Amino acid sequence: MLGPNGAGKTSTLEMLEGMNDIDGGSATINGLDVSQNSYEVKKIIGVQLQANEYFDRLSLIELLILFGKLYSQEIDPMTLLQGVNLAEKANAKPDELSGGQKQRFSIACALVNNPKVLFLDEPTTGLDPQAKRNLWQLIRDLNSEGMTIVLTTHNMEEAEYLCDRIAIMDQGKIVAEDTPQNLILKYAPEPPQAALHGNIEDVFLVLTGHELRD
Amino acid sequence: MFTSAQLHLAKVFLKIFLRNRQSIFFSMLFPLIFTGVFFFSGGPADPIKLGLVNMSQSAIASQFSDLVIAEPSFDVTKGSLVELKEELILGDQTAIILIPENFTFIEGSSQLSLILDASQVRQASSIQETLENSLLAIERDVRGIKPMFNLVVEDVQARPQRYIDFLLPGILAYMLMNLCIAGSGFNIVEYRRRGILKRLFVTPIQPKDFIVAIILSRMVIVLTQISVMLGLAIMLLDINVVGGLPSLYGIVILGTFIFLSIGFFLGSIAKTQEAIQPIVALTSFPQLILSGVFFPISSMHEFIQPIAHVLPLSVVVSGLRSITNDGMSLLTLNLTTAGVLIWMVVSFIVAIKFFVWKEVAS
Questions:
Q1: Measured between CB atoms, does A11 come within 8 Å of chain B?
Q2: What is the pTM of this model?
Q3: Contacts of B200 in chain A (CB under 8 A)
C-alpha cells in the first residue's frame, strides 16, 4: 500500500486489524467480516505497528512468551528468534537493540500466533540499506511459505521488489491497484533512456558490504 | 477463575515491578517513614513557652510568679515586657503573662493579662485551656483551699482509645488509595502514550483481562506494603487490631480492588501524563478531608454528611476502623460491607467501560 503521508494507509490497516471502527464499506479477512468478528480476526492476523515499544525490563524471550500467552498459546521463543536472526540477543532488552533488530523483533512478535495475514506498517523506515535488504529477505521468505503480507511503505523500490499487488492511495481513496508490472505499463511515461549503471545505493552497498551492521 | 493469559500477564507485571530496584526501595521506605513519623511525633506534649513579666512588688505577686515557674506544663522565662514581646513576635515565646503593678489579693479585683501573637491564635486557643486550669490551681494554692471537684475522664466502652487508634485506620485506607491509584492510573497513561497498550490490544485480549492482571499484581505489592506498615505499627505504636487480622486483610483486599479500578478509570479519562496528576489530586484530596480520616464524619456540617458517608474512601475507612477499634468482623459489618461491595461492582464496571487503550487525539 503506497501513498503520501496522511493518505490513510495506517487508518486502512488499523480498520483491517480491528483497531479502528469501519465507518463505511466492509472488510473481510479469511472470510470473516472484520467489524463483526474483530475478536476472531485478531486470532488469525499478526501485526507490526509503526511504534514498537514494549514493557520495560523484559527480555526478548520473556516478551515473546507473553505475546504467546495473549493468544493462549505455548510457543517456542528460540525458534521465532532464529527465524528473524536474533537468537544471540535472546536475553537482551528491546532497548538494547538497533533499529533493524527492533524491526525484526517486532515481526517475531507478530508471528507468535502463526498468522494467516501479517500486517507491516512501514517496516523499513529508518533502516540502513543492509538492514533493509535483510528485512526484505525475511518478508519474502515468510511470503513464500504461504503467508499473506500487507505492508505500507514510502519506498517505491521496496514495493516493486516485494509486492505482487500494489494499491496506491491518495486522500483516503485507492487511486490505482494492480501488479507492479501492469501499473508501470499503464501509468509510467517512457524513460528518456535506459540507465547504464546502478544507483547510489548500489555504490553504497558495494563500498560498505552487504552484511548486517547491528 | 482466572484465565492463563490473565495470570501470566499478572506475573509479568510483578516481574517488571520487582526488577525496578528504585520502585521497590521507595515502596518499602514509605511504610517505614510513615510509622516512624507517628512513632516520633507521639509522647508527652512539650511545655508551653511562657514569658512572665512581674510589674508588682507585692509578696503575693512573687509567690504567684514562683508557682507559675514551678508549674511543669510551663517553660517560663522571666524578663521585661519589651524583651519578651520581641521574643513573642519571633515565635520564641507562645504567650506572655503580665502581672500588673497593682496586683493584690482582694477578691475578684486583680487582672492578669495574657499577651498573644494573633498569627498563632489557633495554637493559643488550645493552650488557653491549659493556662486557665493551671492558673486556677495556682490560685487555690495561694489561697490555701482544696478543689471541690475533680474531673475524671472515662471512656464509655472502657478501653483505652487514643487518637492514633482513630487515625491509623484512616491513614492506612488513605495510603491504600494513593498506592492503588498511582499503581493503575499512572501506569496506564504511560503504557498508552508509548503505544504498548495498542500493541497488546491487536492480540485477542480484552480490557477485562488487562485490568484483572494489573489488579492481581498490584494486590501482591500493596498487601506487602500494608503488611510491613501494619507490622511496624503493631510493634512500635502498640496498635491492637481488635477484630482480627483476617477481617482487616479482607477489607484491605476489597479496598485495593476498588481503588485500582478507580485508578483505571482516571487513567482512561486523562489523556496525558500532565493531566493525570491534577485529576488524581482532585479525586483523592476531597476524600482525605471528607472521609473521616482525621475526624469523624458526624462532626461535619449536616448537609455534607450524606455525601461524605458514601465516598469510596469513607466506606473503606469506616470498615477498617470498626475492625481495628471496635472488634467487628467483615461479616458483621452489614452496611459498610454492602457499601464496599457496591463500590467494587461500580468501579470495576466503570473501569472496563471507559477503558481506553488507544492514544486519543486531543
A1: no
A2: 0.75
A3: 70
